[in-house]
User: Fold this.
Amino acid sequence: MPRSDGRHIKNLSPFVKIMPYIMERRSDALIHHHQTVIVDHIDAYIHAKRESGIKMNYMHVFIAVFVRVLAQRPQINRFVMNGRYYARNHIAISMAIKRSLHDDGEETTIKFMFTGKESIFEVAQTVDAVIHENIGENTQNETDQLAAKFMSLPGPFVKAAVRTVKWLDRHNHMPAGIIKASPFHTSLFFTYLKSIKLDYIYHHLYDFGTTGVFVALGKVKKMPVAENGSVVEKAVCDIGYVLDERLCDGLYFANTLKLAKKYLEDLTLLETSLDAIVEDVD
Assistant:
């Protein structure tokens, strides 16, 4: 049975096909990567855009980079379900937000939907619009409403309902509405730790849903870095990646991270829309 969020990939090598049977759960297949980004040019870019009247911040920049990379490196946008590989038919980035920055402030999750062709300015507009819709104290989005429906049941029924939803997901019977509302059915989960002045972490991947990439962006800090044969102090931020190694081979992952680095070093490359999205193989 087809899924609403992806297309079954059949033309894969036997070695690739067997990996989900060896590593059955996403938590069996975690790999970690750490990246340090010098941010002087990012700060200068954001300042220049603000001077010209365009609102821009680190969240806009990094989400724009990941959207472009997912559009050009489609194997990263795959997911594994019940031993089968699927090419996701959209680009989605999930994120948890606090409706107020207090310990007891209400938390929710949001999901940004993209075609992959967006410029950095279009990404920023989408991000701001979705956050604005969800930041009010009395706001309830689809995720909140779905969770409330589950939690209105007695405890034993909640367990049964969640087990049923997981079974439906494994067998491609999950209602499209639940997939749309679920933050766990997404291309990439992003945590913006810089906003709370916390350093990067390695966040686990969820076995529920389809998320194969988790990215944690840490705070800006000063660090010694090698530059032109000498050591100098620079402002940097660190990124912690956690990836599902079943998605692609090591070379593909390495080239994907190099592409992300290329965009982070020259954000002007993201100012024009992407002409064509790279399609995954079938």
